[in-house]
What does this fold into?
Amino acid sequence: MATNKTQPTQTRPEDFIASVAHPVRRADAETLDALFREVTGFQPRIWGPSIIGYGQYHYRYDSRRTGDFLATGFSPRKAGLSIYIMPGYADFSDILSRLGKHKLGKSCLYVNKMADVDTDVLAELIRAGLDDLAKRWPVQPT
It folds into this structure.
């Protein structure tokens, strides 16, 4: 059975954030790290080459595929910030309508820069996403 390609690494989150070349993206990553730590109470861990994750869960699908994945997190990409906060099950449109400028993927939120969004609303969305995920699979600290 195939394994998840995105696995936790030994890279220190502080070192990864410090290596972000773009100064605004690096500052935004520092802001997001502080926000995720505060909201989740979890320590960050690098997943794959570029995702900073907080918490993790073990999944088992009806197909019998199993694995572990980050519960929530973000990645400071060249084009913008990818924020992994929505497991893709619940409708968070009421919160998203108050967030500010963003785009949505299936379970990912895309933001150009933190100045485009309301940090308090983002904190609310992170918590709502974690709470929704925990209804399906237990979330463990990292």
